[in-house]
Amino acid sequence: MRELSLNVLDIAQNSIAANATCITLWVTESVSQNRLILGIEDNGRGMTEEQLQRVRDPFFTTRTTRRVGMGIPLFRMAAEMAGGSLTIDSTLGKGTVVTAAFLLDHIDRPPLGDMVGTVSALIRLNPQLDFVYRHQTDSGSFEADTRSFREILGEVPLNEPDIVQWIEGYLTENVQALNSQA
Ligand SMILES: Nc1ncnc2c1ncn2[C@@H]1O[C@H](COP(=O)(O)OP(=O)(O)OP(=O)(O)O)[C@@H](O)[C@H]1O
Ligand SMILES: [Mg+2]
User: Fold this and answer.
1) In the chain, how many domains are there?
2) Mutation probe of ligand 1 site: the residue of 11, 14, 24, 99 with most atoms within 8 A of C-beta
3) Which of 7, 44, 65, 168 is deepest in the core (most CB within 10 A)?
Protein backbone atom coordinates (compact mmCIF):
# COMPACT_ATOMS: atom_id res chain seq x y z
CA MET A 1 0.00 0.00 0.00
CA ARG A 2 1.60 3.21 -1.11
CA GLU A 3 -0.79 5.61 0.61
CA LEU A 4 -1.47 5.59 4.32
CA SER A 5 -5.14 6.45 3.79
CA LEU A 6 -5.49 2.95 2.27
CA ASN A 7 -3.98 1.38 5.40
CA VAL A 8 -6.50 3.35 7.45
CA LEU A 9 -9.34 2.09 5.23
CA ASP A 10 -8.08 -1.45 5.77
CA ILE A 11 -7.75 -1.08 9.56
CA ALA A 12 -11.27 0.38 9.73
CA GLN A 13 -12.53 -2.81 8.03
CA ASN A 14 -11.34 -4.68 11.13
CA SER A 15 -13.52 -2.41 13.25
CA ILE A 16 -16.51 -3.07 11.02
CA ALA A 17 -15.83 -6.82 11.16
CA ALA A 18 -15.75 -6.49 14.97
CA ASN A 19 -19.32 -5.12 14.88
CA ALA A 20 -18.42 -1.57 15.85
CA THR A 21 -21.26 0.96 15.67
CA CYS A 22 -19.01 4.00 15.97
CA ILE A 23 -15.54 4.44 14.50
CA THR A 24 -13.33 7.47 15.14
CA LEU A 25 -10.51 8.22 12.72
CA TRP A 26 -7.90 10.89 13.28
CA VAL A 27 -4.93 12.47 11.62
CA THR A 28 -2.50 14.65 13.56
CA GLU A 29 0.07 16.29 11.35
CA SER A 30 2.65 18.42 13.10
CA VAL A 31 5.53 20.01 11.21
CA SER A 32 6.82 21.59 14.43
CA GLN A 33 7.02 18.17 16.12
CA ASN A 34 7.92 16.33 12.91
CA ARG A 35 5.13 13.81 13.57
CA LEU A 36 2.29 12.24 11.69
CA ILE A 37 -0.12 10.24 13.82
CA LEU A 38 -3.01 8.19 12.47
CA GLY A 39 -5.61 6.67 14.76
CA ILE A 40 -8.56 4.35 14.45
CA GLU A 41 -10.77 3.76 17.48
CA ASP A 42 -13.87 1.60 17.62
CA ASN A 43 -16.49 0.35 20.06
CA GLY A 44 -16.49 -3.15 18.60
CA ARG A 45 -16.08 -6.47 20.35
CA GLY A 46 -12.44 -5.92 21.29
CA MET A 47 -9.88 -8.65 21.85
CA THR A 48 -8.80 -10.95 24.64
CA GLU A 49 -5.25 -10.65 25.99
CA GLU A 50 -4.30 -13.72 23.98
CA GLN A 51 -5.81 -12.44 20.74
CA LEU A 52 -4.15 -9.11 21.30
CA GLN A 53 -0.76 -10.72 21.81
CA ARG A 54 -1.20 -12.74 18.62
CA VAL A 55 -2.13 -9.64 16.65
CA ARG A 56 0.82 -7.70 18.04
CA ASP A 57 3.11 -10.54 16.98
CA PRO A 58 1.61 -12.52 14.08
CA PHE A 59 4.36 -15.15 14.41
CA PHE A 60 3.50 -15.70 18.07
CA THR A 61 1.58 -18.81 17.09
CA THR A 62 3.00 -21.64 14.99
CA ARG A 63 -0.40 -22.75 13.80
CA THR A 64 -0.63 -22.87 10.03
CA THR A 65 -4.21 -24.00 9.53
CA ARG A 66 -5.49 -20.44 9.50
CA ARG A 67 -4.11 -17.66 7.36
CA VAL A 68 -2.34 -14.85 9.12
CA GLY A 69 -3.96 -11.46 8.59
CA MET A 70 -1.78 -8.79 7.04
CA GLY A 71 -3.66 -5.57 7.74
CA ILE A 72 -2.02 -4.72 11.04
CA PRO A 73 1.47 -6.07 10.19
CA LEU A 74 1.57 -3.97 7.00
CA PHE A 75 0.53 -0.83 8.85
CA ARG A 76 3.10 -1.55 11.54
CA MET A 77 5.82 -2.06 8.96
CA ALA A 78 4.97 1.25 7.28
CA ALA A 79 5.28 3.05 10.64
CA GLU A 80 8.51 1.34 11.66
CA MET A 81 10.16 2.01 8.30
CA ALA A 82 9.40 5.70 8.82
CA GLY A 83 10.97 6.02 12.27
CA GLY A 84 7.71 5.40 14.11
CA SER A 85 5.68 2.64 15.68
CA LEU A 86 2.23 1.12 15.93
CA THR A 87 0.33 0.50 19.13
CA ILE A 88 -2.86 -1.49 19.71
CA ASP A 89 -5.00 -1.24 22.80
CA SER A 90 -8.05 -3.39 23.10
CA THR A 91 -10.57 -4.32 25.76
CA LEU A 92 -12.89 -7.25 25.31
CA GLY A 93 -16.45 -6.02 24.96
CA LYS A 94 -15.37 -2.36 24.86
CA GLY A 95 -13.37 -1.74 21.72
CA THR A 96 -10.00 -1.24 20.11
CA VAL A 97 -7.63 1.63 19.42
CA VAL A 98 -4.91 1.39 16.77
CA THR A 99 -2.41 4.25 16.57
CA ALA A 100 0.42 4.59 14.08
CA ALA A 101 3.09 7.25 14.45
CA PHE A 102 5.53 8.33 11.73
CA LEU A 103 8.36 10.83 11.43
CA LEU A 104 6.71 13.37 9.16
CA ASP A 105 9.86 14.12 7.17
CA HIS A 106 11.19 10.55 6.99
CA ILE A 107 12.22 9.68 3.46
CA ASP A 108 10.43 6.33 3.71
CA ARG A 109 7.16 7.74 5.02
CA PRO A 110 4.44 6.97 2.49
CA PRO A 111 2.21 9.89 1.52
CA LEU A 112 -0.99 10.28 3.51
CA GLY A 113 -3.07 10.01 0.35
CA ASP A 114 -6.76 10.75 0.14
CA MET A 115 -8.08 10.65 3.73
CA VAL A 116 -11.29 12.40 2.69
CA GLY A 117 -11.79 9.62 0.12
CA THR A 118 -11.27 6.99 2.82
CA VAL A 119 -13.72 8.63 5.24
CA SER A 120 -16.34 9.25 2.51
CA ALA A 121 -16.07 5.67 1.28
CA LEU A 122 -16.52 4.31 4.80
CA ILE A 123 -19.62 6.46 5.33
CA ARG A 124 -21.07 5.62 1.91
CA LEU A 125 -20.54 1.87 2.31
CA ASN A 126 -21.69 1.75 5.95
CA PRO A 127 -24.47 4.31 6.23
CA GLN A 128 -25.83 2.62 9.37
CA LEU A 129 -22.57 3.18 11.30
CA ASP A 130 -21.34 6.39 12.87
CA PHE A 131 -17.99 7.91 12.02
CA VAL A 132 -16.03 10.73 13.58
CA TYR A 133 -13.15 12.30 11.66
CA ARG A 134 -10.66 14.57 13.38
CA HIS A 135 -7.88 16.31 11.51
CA GLN A 136 -5.33 18.37 13.37
CA THR A 137 -2.39 20.42 12.10
CA ASP A 138 -0.16 23.04 13.71
CA SER A 139 -2.67 25.67 12.62
CA GLY A 140 -5.82 24.17 14.08
CA SER A 141 -8.23 21.28 14.00
CA PHE A 142 -11.42 20.14 12.36
CA GLU A 143 -13.92 17.49 13.40
CA ALA A 144 -16.86 15.95 11.57
CA ASP A 145 -19.36 13.55 13.12
CA THR A 146 -22.02 11.61 11.19
CA ARG A 147 -24.30 11.92 14.24
CA SER A 148 -24.57 15.65 13.68
CA PHE A 149 -25.20 15.06 9.94
CA ARG A 150 -28.03 12.71 10.92
CA GLU A 151 -29.57 15.35 13.17
CA ILE A 152 -29.88 17.66 10.19
CA LEU A 153 -30.88 14.96 7.70
CA GLY A 154 -33.54 13.22 9.75
CA GLU A 155 -34.63 10.13 7.82
CA VAL A 156 -32.44 10.74 4.77
CA PRO A 157 -29.79 7.99 4.65
CA LEU A 158 -26.13 8.99 4.60
CA ASN A 159 -25.53 7.03 1.40
CA GLU A 160 -28.00 9.05 -0.68
CA PRO A 161 -25.89 10.27 -3.67
CA ASP A 162 -26.53 13.98 -2.99
CA ILE A 163 -25.61 13.53 0.65
CA VAL A 164 -22.47 11.55 -0.17
CA GLN A 165 -21.39 14.37 -2.46
CA TRP A 166 -22.17 17.01 0.14
CA ILE A 167 -20.21 15.19 2.85
CA GLU A 168 -17.23 14.75 0.54
CA GLY A 169 -17.27 18.45 -0.34
CA TYR A 170 -17.63 19.48 3.29
CA LEU A 171 -14.67 17.33 4.40
CA THR A 172 -12.53 18.44 1.45
CA GLU A 173 -13.18 22.14 2.12
CA ASN A 174 -12.42 21.91 5.81
CA VAL A 175 -9.25 19.84 5.43
CA GLN A 176 -8.04 22.19 2.68
CA ALA A 177 -8.72 25.19 4.89
CA LEU A 178 -6.56 23.63 7.62
CA ASN A 179 -3.71 22.96 5.24
CA SER A 180 -3.78 26.42 3.68
CA GLN A 181 -3.54 28.10 7.08
CA ALA A 182 -0.11 26.59 7.66
N1 LIG B 1 -10.65 -3.48 15.68
C2 LIG B 1 -10.59 -4.78 15.99
N3 LIG B 1 -11.47 -5.34 16.85
C4 LIG B 1 -11.42 -6.66 17.15
N5 LIG B 1 -10.51 -7.51 16.63
C6 LIG B 1 -9.61 -7.03 15.78
C7 LIG B 1 -9.59 -5.64 15.41
N8 LIG B 1 -8.56 -5.43 14.55
C9 LIG B 1 -7.99 -6.63 14.38
N10 LIG B 1 -8.60 -7.59 15.11
C11 LIG B 1 -8.23 -9.01 15.17
O12 LIG B 1 -6.91 -9.12 14.69
C13 LIG B 1 -6.85 -9.97 13.56
C14 LIG B 1 -5.75 -9.49 12.64
O15 LIG B 1 -6.11 -8.29 11.97
P16 LIG B 1 -5.44 -7.97 10.58
O17 LIG B 1 -6.08 -6.77 9.99
O18 LIG B 1 -3.97 -7.93 10.74
O19 LIG B 1 -5.76 -9.23 9.71
P20 LIG B 1 -7.18 -9.74 9.17
O21 LIG B 1 -8.21 -8.65 9.29
O22 LIG B 1 -7.48 -11.04 9.85
O23 LIG B 1 -6.86 -10.03 7.67
P24 LIG B 1 -6.61 -8.94 6.50
O25 LIG B 1 -6.59 -7.58 7.14
O26 LIG B 1 -5.32 -9.32 5.90
O27 LIG B 1 -7.78 -9.12 5.60
C28 LIG B 1 -8.25 -9.96 13.01
O29 LIG B 1 -8.53 -11.15 12.30
C30 LIG B 1 -9.10 -9.83 14.26
O31 LIG B 1 -9.26 -11.09 14.87
MG1 LIG C 1 -7.75 -6.70 8.61
Assistant:
1) 1
2) 14
3) 7
Name the residue range of residue 170's domain.
4-180
The per-residue pLDDT string of the chain (182 residues; one tens digit each, 9 = 90 and over) reads: 689 999 999 999 999 999 999 999 999 999 999 999 999 999 999 999 999 988 887 665 545 556 667 899 999 999 999 999 999 999 999 999 999 999 999 999 999 999 999 999 999 999 999 999 999 999 999 999 999 999 998 989 999 999 999 999 999 999 999 988 75
Does the CB atom of residue 45 touch ligand 1 within 6 A? yes
Give CA–CA dist 30/59, Å, rounded.
34
* CATH code of the domain covering residue 151: 3.30.565
> In this structure, which ligand is nearest to the CA of 73?
1
Q: What is the pTM of this model?
A: 0.94
Distance between CA atoms of 169 and 46, rounded to whole angstroms?
Answer: 33
